[in-house]
Design brief:
This protein is α+β, with helices and mostly antiparallel strands. It has 3 helices and 6 strands; from the N terminus they run H-H-E-E-E-E-H-E-E. A 4-stranded antiparallel beta sheet has the order 1-6-3-4, with helices on one face. It has a two-stranded antiparallel ribbon with strand order 2-5. The N and C termini lie far apart (178 Å).
Length: 290
Amino acid sequence: MRITKEQRFAITSTIIFLIFFSGLLLIFGFSSPFPPPEEEGILINFGTDETGSGMIEPKPVNNPVQEEVNPEPVKTTPEPVKSDNAKEEVVTQDFDKTAVIEERKRKEKERLEQEKRKKEQEEIERKRQEKLERQRQEEERRRQQEKQKEISDRAKNAFGGKNPTGDNTGEGETSGIGNQGKPEGDINSKNRTGGSTGGNGISFNLSGRSHRSLPKPQKIHKNEGYVVVEVTVDQNGNVTSARAGVKGTTISDENVWKVARDAALKAKFNVDKNAPALQKGTIKYYFGFE
């Protein structure tokens, strides 16, 4: 049997309609309301029997008084009152922890700032000390240069026939062209004649001062040479201290040093109120075999 085109269309349309109609029934037809409606009935009069007559409600019959039975109170456990103490405690603890952390941070910051300031002060002090040391070294070099120049000038004046005035007549009390004295003498000595260390074997060097007395030391014949004593002289010309064996000494015997020191302590120089309060100089003693 051959199905025509119209029949196929009819069958297809019918199937589609049935499927659509079934869907509508499933959605709207088979659903129940929620909540379900209450049961409906007839309200009946209050009474005591299924039979009765009359239209007036009779007075209620007094029933014997029933003893009131006080029900035993039910013991109930009071519900614990919820308190915010726990929450407050937690909040308080968190606040305390935060405060402690902030305090630690503040102290750490202060410590770091103090260390930074300390390092800056140390760096400033180090630079200042370096500057002072450079100045001291420069001053020392300048003094050494001045001292070397002074020694060089004195040597030129002593051995080159020149004096500070710039002429070539030399220095001395005679009419010669050189410096009066001896090569082994002291360049600061004003004595023109005598031994190499002076007329009595004693010479001194105390800038701008002259001597009043230079006692000779005790004789010791077993040594020959020089002992130089460093002396400190006040404005009145008194020797306040003496130290034997300084530069220029050629005798190593400490006994000779002692007698030279004792002699130096007895020396006297001129009074000079313009001189330093304590002026240093030297006294040179010659010891020889006599």
